[in-house]
Amino acid sequence: MPASAMHWASIGGNVDTDAGGLKSVRYGVTREHIRQLKVVLTDGKLYKFGAKAVKSSSGYSLKDLIIGSEGTLGVVTEVTMWLYPTPRKSINALIPFPTLNDAIKSVPAILASGVVPTTVEFMGRKVIDLWEKYYNEKFSVDTGDGFILLRFDAFTDGELQAVATTKQFKSATPIVLDANSEEAKTIWKCREDLLLAIQKSTPKMNEVDICVPINHIPDVLDRVDELEKEIGMRIPNFGHAGDGNLHIYLCSDNMSDEEYKEKSDKVITELYKIAKALDGTCLVNMVLVMLEKIGSNGTMVKTILTY
After folding, report:
1. Measured CA distances, 275 to 68, 269, 283, 302 (Å)
2. What is the CATH number of domain 11-81?
3. How far apart are CA 193 and CA 294, in angstroms?
4. Architecture of domain 90-198 in CATH?
5. What band does 22 get if pLDDT is binned at 50, 70 and 90?
6. Residue 148 pLDDT more than 80?
7. For 246-265, what is the mean pLDDT?
8. CA torsion 174→178→179→180, rounded to 10°?
9. What is the pTM of this model?
10. Cα separations (Å) of 237 from 37, 240, 243, 249, 278?
């Protein structure tokens, strides 16, 4: 499955949310990997949508209506998936840049070079510093404030020239690593732990997922920097540069609940505005806020903010 959180997510959950993740640049989101679903609808009956056959193009694609419906149309009980063989060899390339904006601006050039990376991720020095602090580990590269992390599956040596296109965006020399090397594993561990590192740095946080055309990622990040100053809130972020999906986190730090709610409302409103203006989408993830409100007796506060 393409989703990145498979160590805590379920296949059914990926289907219900049509999840994407680190490898969606090459392999697409969950929808592209589903052949057939068995679903219990609201009448209590079990239905089968889709087919195991490669070609199944007759009639309505009810399977695709269920995928991403988040359980509102029925309960998925069985999933038949298309599987890919494990690549014979994979490599990673970590590319440092002077700024995060320089890093992001290189992504369209990488994708236009004719190669199809498996993964194109971005992260800045601020969130890496949090990972180093809360996981007591050291990132592999000391220089640069912005980084692009690439993974290539089933590549040719000629395709590695794609990383050379980043020179026009002030990149340092790319670090190319075998995917199974210890240094590569450390870099990916940092990327996978960024969410938890941010969570450890603040009493409460909320996530806003924004997805925009990749050439507009710098516009969103510039607006996030402005909002940090305007609103007075720490807003760390990282994300999938290859598909324009940004993970943006609103940290409460030393604010009262009232101040945090007020400032969160303002930030989320502004993020929704810029996502819409850039022909993108915006999703507010309430899960972390809800977890904060689970009482000692195990009950959960039912009040949920809607944006």
Report:
1. 20, 10, 10, 28
2. 3.30.465.10
3. 24
4. 2-Layer Sandwich (3.30)
5. confident
6. yes
7. 96
8. -140
9. 0.83
10. 35, 11, 15, 6, 18
Q: Residue 246: name the closest of 255, 235, 230 by CA.
A: 235
Average pLDDT over residues 83-102: 90
Domain ranges in the chain with CATH number 3.30.70.2740: 202-292
pLDDT of residue 297: 46
Task: Tell whether the model's pLDDT for residue 218 goes beyond 90.
Answer: yes
Sign of the torsion angle spanned by Cα atoms 80, 85, 86, 90: negative
Q: Please tell me the distance from the alpha carbon of residue 143 to that of residue 167, in angstroms, as a whole number.
A: 16
Q: What is the pLDDT of residue 263?
A: 97
| Helix segments in the chain, DSSP class H | 11-17, 24-27, 62-66, 100-105, 107-111, 125-135, 182-200, 217-227, 257-277, 287-292
What backbone torsions phi and psi does residue 96 show, to the nearest 5 degrees?
-85, 145
Instruction: Give the residue range(s) of CATH 3.30.465.10 domains in the chain.
Output: 11-81
Question: How many CA atoms lie within 13 Å of 246's alpha carbon, on the beta-carbon side?
Answer: 31
Q: Dig out the tokens for 115 from the structure.
A: 């190669």
**CATH class (in words) of the domain with range 202-292:** alpha beta
Encoding tokens for residue 36? 């057939």
Nearest to 197 by CA among 147, 122, 127: 127
Average pLDDT of the chain is 86
**pLDDT above 80: residue 194:** yes
What Rg value do the Cα atoms of the chain yield, rounded?
21
Note the pLDDT of residue 158.
Answer: 67
Mean pLDDT of 62-76: 93
Q: Torsion angle of alpha carbons 265, 271, 277, 278, nearest 10°? A: -160
Burial class (CB in 10 A: 0-12, 13-18, 19+), 209: middle
